[in-house]
Protein: Uroporphyrinogen decarboxylase
Amino acid sequence: MISTSRFIEACWGRPHDKVPVWFMRQAGRYQDGYRKLRQQYSFLEMAHNPDICTEVSCRPVEELGVDAAILFSDIMIPLGPMGVDFEIREHFGPVIAHPVRTGRDLKQLRVLEPEDDLPEVFEAIEKICERLGAIPLIGFAGAPFTLASYLIEGGPSKNYLHTKRLMWEQPEVWRQLMDVLADATVRHLSAQVRHGAQAVQVFDSWIGALPVDDYRKYVMPSMRAVFAKLNALQVPTIYFGTGTASLLHAMKETGPTVLGVDWRTPIRQARSTVGSEVTLQGNLDPMTLVCEWDIVKEHSTAILQDMLGDPAFIFNLGHGVPPEAHPDNLKRLVEWVHQFPGTPASQ
Ligand code: 1CP
Structure:
């Protein structure tokens, strides 16, 4: 398929008209429409209902004019059919009934069969793609480390005590867990691509908890395997994490098409760290969105100027849209980003 999307072109570092933009967590509680739906349904009810999922995934494209949609789902969703009993608690996050801490716990996880286990997700993807027309849909999944951190800790964590303990004290169990989760990530994303997703993002949100030597030893092998398999699908692959200043080079070595950068690392510094062969995505501080427009403009302009003329750049936030963000700021930001050319005028 020949794509004319500026988002896809920028993923491949090819010329395009304007700087593409989308926002992590662009569907969510900052939107009136989302809040209204959430009064009627739980998060999981919404994510498992193809019509609601389609509506919530498409609205940001229609309301904000972003260049890509992201599937409304969660990194935890594939873990349900793999045998993990969890809930999503409001204002908190995922809570796992029986955390995975031993080789025996691990044996209870079963292989994900995406289309059999989660048919509603793939029905939603087909509906979203039909409604979006030329705007691409980004599929996503959690990365093995970040999924493992929820499974092992039993929920959100600050210090990743149990995760690091298992990783260091039971390296063989850790390796098996990484393999099981990497396999699920690849299966889930491959199925999303089969049903129409035109790019995939792997969220390793909490990978910044690791120093680079541990990343290389305990995580990198599984990430290399993930991207080797995903890249064979011939859609752009995006790898995102937070707190990654010292990890960016190693993350790049795992082979994604695009590297997501959080707001703590200046984007020009990220570029000089990783070289020119990978597209960068980022990295406005999400907290600017709760401020007056001038603040959003000032911070976004600095990023856009740093990346001016770089065809391998996608504008995004450094992490997800906060629930307190002003929707107007997001709308104006899309218009502002679109005033910047995607490649130098001379090309
Ligand atoms: O645009 C979108 O909203 C896309 C949908 C999306 C995505 C990409 C959701 C909906 N979750 C995710 C991925 C996700 N889930 C990540 C990676 C991205 C990131 O770092 O933000 C992570 C870490 C989770 C786990 C999770 N699920 C959390 C974070 C908890 C923690 O450890 O701090 C939370 C709060 C959830 C629930 C959730 N997922 C999504 C939404 C809109 C919500 C809130 C549910 C609600 O409405 O109450």
